[in-house]
């Protein structure tokens, strides 16, 4: 009960902060920011103070990585990690670290591919972005920080170069000189550390050597991942098609927006579908626990690991089923949750990853109200 009581006390404190902050935004200023507020797509009153000020939740700007074997000394097999693959390299970003920092500014391909790996605990939204944007002056690489603001309970990021504000869940520029710009999303997925090690045994894991002292492994939002709760500091549009705190696997593909409720995907394990003419499959296997359940993340309940992939491989469109694992009916090959064939005629084949996320329903639907709910 203690974490729940502590969260309630925190909510009262932050609500008071939010009210004071909102009053300060009515004159079209952002205290502590040099953001060009004349360029904006939202009313500044939509920004709520989340408690910590600008950079009060410190981003990780010089990430250090260790081998999976070294990470196993402090990372339990069932703990959730964000797996990101770029240019043939895959890295894991444990949620036990991202929960405390929310943004990691990283580079792949020897510095040629700058990325931001982000996680908003209040929305359970893990999204990886390309940090490069096109401007009138050419390509510009941005570095992101945590602004201290929330919008519809979702993290609002800012870039240190122009102090433009960005919506974490969508990657849209909200206020500032880069208004109208949208960040490119890289496909990433939340899986267990054990599943990550099995699929990418030689890959690296974000280290606890962050330059900051935090109680990594503990969940500062204990009890928040509860379908019977109400979202924290959420004053956005409501959608009665799903319970606010029900999790969904959601994606936007060529203008088509779809959400697959966990209550369905956890039962069926496999959903064969299509979006915008692309045949896709949703995988949902046991593996990762929730990062926002118990006070100790490793002791949390199972949430499962998900993946969304293009079903086309080997010159054909595959149809998947669950048979104590993922199996395609066309070749009988067996696949893991990362979309890789591990046995059968297609062994070694990797399905194309589609950008998706695991979100609380209220968060995704607030920003994507036209989303089709899969039934």
What's this, in brief?
By secondary structure, the chain is of the alpha+beta class. The protein has six helices and 29 strands.
Q: On the 0-100 scale, what is the average pLDDT?
A: 93
Residues in helix, %:
10-25%
Compute the CA-based radius of gyration: 20 Å
Strand content: 25-35%
Apparent shape: globular
**Count of helical regions:** 6
Q: How are the strands of the largest sheet arranged?
A: 1-10-11-12-13
Write a structural description.
With 375 residues, this protein is an alpha+beta fold. The protein has six helices and 29 strands. The longest helix has 24 residues, at 2-25. The chain is globular and about 60 Å long.
Topology readout:
Layout: H1 2-25, E1 48-49, E2 65-67, H2 68-71, E3 80-86, E4 89-94, H3 95-101, E5 103-108, E6 113-120, E7 125-130, E8 132-135, E9 138-141, E10 144-151, E11 154-159, E12 165-167, E13 173-175, E14 185-186, E15 188-192, H4 193-199, E16 204-206, E17 247-253, E18 256-261, H5 262-268, E19 270-275, E20 278-285, E21 305-310, E22 312-313, E23 316-317, E24 320-322, E25 326-328, E26 334-335, E27 341-343, E28 357-360, H6 361-367, E29 372-373
Parallel strand pairs: 4-16, 18-29
Antiparallel strand pairs: 1-10, 2-16, 3-4, 3-15, 5-6, 6-7, 7-14, 8-9, 10-11, 11-12, 12-13, 17-18, 17-28, 19-20, 20-21, 22-23, 24-25, 25-26, 26-27
